Amino acid sequence: MRRASASPAGARRARVRPWPGANRRQPGAERVEVIALEQGIRLRTIFLLLMGTILAIATTDVLSGAVGLLRETAARPLTAAEQNLYVQEDIARRWHTWPTTLVFPGELEYVALGRTQQYARRVGIAPETPCRAGTDAAVGAILSENGCRTLLRATYVDQTSTFAITVGVAVMEDADKRRAATGQLTTDDRVGVRPVAFPGTATELFGAAQRQRNAWVGVGPYIVFSTAGYTDGRTREAVAQEEILHSELWPTAQTVAGRIARALGAEPAVPRCTQGNVC
Predict the structure, then answer these.
(1) pLDDT score of 111 more than 50
(2) Residue 8 above 70 pLDDT?
């Protein structure tokens, strides 16, 4: 008899043939992935280009601003217009940046008859007052119409205390306003600044009736008025015109007021550069 096979037929493992293309991707899916990848690359490229452009513009703006700021803040020579503006502004603020004792010094030199050097002495400084209040009506109206800001006054006596002199500084808004006002002021020497008397001093009898003459001079934004009379109380009508013409009174008053005006209008030292004198 034939022997039965030792390995039963069911014990053999049948080989399974794989389906054709089972491990391959479908052409359609592969194309979709390629398109998606290419689109992603394009979007990223566009994004990077956009961000690079924005950063470049921002950097350019920052650099331009820095260069402009450096140019603005760097010391450079002042132009002629800037120098002139510096002078005008310095002069215009002196009335309130200077102490009153600098606007009206304690002593002012003048030359008396015989060419002798003498000194007028300041008796007192009046409180600041509105322009209309410290001047005659006709003068005050012109000052106010042209932007007068305030009036400063002080009274002096000559070295012998024979003459009393009140100096008034009308502070205008600017030099143009000052020129407009002086163009309208009358030449009448009977009106101008009102005198200031200080009780208990040689000036206590110096009032409006004692004024012998009045005058003014313009400088910068200021009109410097002066009025003078005798400390003994003599009125204008009581003094002969010939005596006034030959008296030291008026030359002394003009010198005192003139020195105050020149100091207020003197040009300051102008820096050469926007930051001092080193450019």
Answers:
(1) yes
(2) no
